[in-house]
Write the structure tokens for this entry.
Amino acid sequence: MATIGRRTFLKLLAAGAAATVWQGNPAVPAIAAPAPYRLKDTKVSPSVCIFCGVGCGLLVYARDGKVVNVEGDPDNPNNEGGLCAKGASAYEVYISPRRLKKVLYRAPGSDKWEEKEWSWAIPEIARRIKKTRDESFKTREGSVTVNRAEALGQLGGASHDTDECYLLSKFARALGIVSLEHQARI
Ligand code: SF4
């Protein structure tokens, strides 16, 4: 009777085990089944990160009217698909239960925030801008005409695009505002 060495025995054992797996032994779980594609049936829209003036491009995926994923836009020349930690958290901001969705107002001297409607907030802001400007507008400094609203300031936001920034700065200059700044610079 022929004898087999230890090395040959191990080779035959391994070949037998492989053959058993290959034949679909139900006791062996499948380990390479593909996960379902998570962006299936979504509609994608290009957008811009709201957090800073770099203006990185985003791709926003929505299914049934709800955002399900946000990621960097590889076709945007600003970021070529990459996002910093803030931009990468854009989807979490969208789903966060702490996200503000209403106007919050804290009256002078108060320590409490009140929820307000936009229909209250916008005319109130306009009234206060006019009042402050009327009370503080400076027409001259010494012998020089200045026409400045020194008690007002304007702060731009990174989600404004170029045209909006142009219009907002025009609006501020028309009021006489000289303290103009942008959120991305501070
Ligand atoms: S916060 Fe980050 S991702 Fe967003 S625009 Fe700025 S650099 Fe880009």
The mean pLDDT is 88. The helical segments are 6-22, 85-88, 90-95, 118-136, 162-175.
